[in-house]
Design a protein that fits this description.
The N and C termini lie far apart (50 Å). The radius of gyration is 17 Å and the shape is globular. With 229 residues, the protein is of the alpha/beta class.
């Protein structure tokens, strides 16, 4: 039986050359938000440490599906997933790995560059920005793991990113204990605390990503509650 790629498959690469930016947590929750919204979603884990794959084992095969891949096989894995009907594919990449990052960016319709809003992280991010520019893919810096209530810090960081010639995602995923507790338990923030700020912020990120990818924008449960209030 012959299969063909899903015409609406979109791929998001999570890339940062610096460790500690929360790439895996971001990738897991973006894929989970898509699944929760009714999209057929999966995640490709290219990190040799296989943190996402370990998380999937803790979940005992509960969605979203996570598959591992060596960097040269990313495109083939995307094609196979698309043939199975995948709508949103999220690629998690390891830090300090130019090959994995390059292959993921080459295959991506959208690149997210997670970054803490600190001077050292912002300076290190320039390497990733140059890589994305070289490969000419739409990309946005997304601030992660920073203080929840620090508007001046984020304003300064946004200005610095603009100075690097990059765009910033309007959704911020600050440090939330819910993320740590969820991942350690093989769960997501939607499962341990569906009404939390972390869950709402992740829903908002997914809706924004769908808009960037020209996908139909689902109305998530928390967003619906806020609109109805």
């Amino acid at each position: 039986m012959t299969t063909t790629p899903h015409p609406n498959t979109r791929t998001v690469a999570i890339v940062s050359q610096k460790g500690g930016a929360g790439k895996t947590t971001l990738a897991i929750h973006l894929a989970a938000a898509a699944t929760r919204a009714g999209q057929i979603s999966l995640m490709i884990d290219t990190d040799p440490q296989a943190s996402a794959s370990q998380w999937a084992e803790w979940r005992k095969a509960a969605p979203p599906e996570i598959i591992d891949s060596a960097p040269p096989r990313i495109a083939a894995k995307i094609e196979a997933a698309s043939e199975r009907g995948a709508e949103l594919i999220v690629i998690d990449t390891p830090p300090h790995a130019d090959l994995a990052a390059s292959k993921a960016v080459e295959c991506a319709d959208l690149v997210l560059i997670p970054c803490r809003p600190s001077a050292f992280d912002l300076a290190a991010m320039r390497t990733t920005i140059r890589l994305v520019e070289l490969l000419a893919r739409p990309a946005f810096v997304i601030f992660t793991a920073g203080p929840p209530n620090a508007p001046l810090i984020y304003a300064d960081a946004i200005e610095l990113v603009a100075g690097f010639g990059a765009q910033t995602c309007p959704v911020i995923l600050p440090e939330r204990a819910a993320y740590r507790h969820a991942v350690a338990a093989g769960q997501t923030v939607f499962e341990i605390d569906p009404g939390s700020k972390a869950a709402l912020e992740t829903e908002q990120l997914h809706m924004w990503a769908c808009e960037q990818l020209n996908m139909s924008i689902p109305l998530h449960p928390l967003a619906h509650e806020r609109m109805s209030a």
